[in-house]
Amino acid sequence: MTGLEPFGARLRRAMDERGPLCVGIDPHASLLSEWGLNDDVAGLERFSRTVVEAVADRVAVLKPQSAFFERFGSRGVAVLEKTVREARAAGALVVMDAKRGDIGSTMAAYAESFLHKDAPLFSDALTVSPYLGYGSLSPAVALARESGTGLFVLALTSNPEGGEVQHAVRHDGRTVGATMLGHLSVENAGEEPLGSFGAVVGATLGDLSSYDLDINGPLLAPGIGAQGAKAADLPAVFGSAVRNVVPNVSRGVLRHGPDATTLRDAAERFAEEIRAAVTAA
């Protein structure tokens, strides 16, 4: 397989040129209703097309949440395929938020579904769960290297339940979350200008100075906007790694629909706030 330029390099360039912002595409029923759309495939398609047309030519990353498309079955997945294809054609990098995690040939099949260049859902990166052991991700890591795509590994998530696993202390004295960050640092060693194997780290977690976030890879950071975190909080949370943070904003942008202009203005406002916070750090 002939791969793309590595995801990390493409992401670094997109963040520098367009600003470090990821806009989530989360067409759940309540948002469809707020937009005056029916909770059906037609509403799903209208919602997704509007977001792509409004912001895909100006934000660095779009992150569709696969579950909100899958709930409509094959027709919903068809909408997701079109959304990914059109977002990438407009210049945005697409991170598929599917949080896949399994072992062996099953993990390989999940990876091929999203990271193989000929897959209908081919995306620039995929979110994955390492909680069957980091080594279970090996098929996805290998395919990402081959195809020039990336992974975002769940490491320190913002949901309250995550702590019972991610903050658990291993026999070597490190937490499980820190162990995942350590694996990613190894994956990204020597990569320039940025490695392709990132972590998901919540922007709402406060002081993370006890964790080494300098993994030479991107940090996908949910929590800005509706979940309570602000762009100005990023330097305090991420410290010296803040330049590699890709803050994700979903409802904070999407609630401004269905008007494409107000969606675009909201995305540009968040991007500028984040850029200013990062630059000032």
Strands, count: 8
If helices are DSSP runs of H or I spanning 4 or more residues, what is the number of helices? 12
Q: What's the order of the H and E elements?
A: HEHHEHHEHEHEHHEEHEHH
Please state the CA-atom Rg, rounded to the nearest Å: 18 Å
Largest sheet: 8 strands, parallel, barrel
What form results from the Cα inertia axes? globular
Name the helicity range. 40-55%
What is the SS-derived class? alpha/beta
* Percentage of residues in DSSP E strands: 5-15%
> How far from one another are the termini?
40 Å
For the residues shown, what is the average pLDDT? 96
Strand order of the largest sheet: 1-2-3-4-5-6-7-8
Summarize the topology.
Elements: H1 7-18, E1 22-25, H2 29-34, H3 41-55, E2 61-64, H4 66-70, H5 73-89, E3 93-100, H6 104-115, E4 125-128, H7 138-147, E5 150-156, H8 163-166, H9 176-187, E6 197-201, E7 219-222, H10 234-238, E8 245-249, H11 251-254, H12 260-280
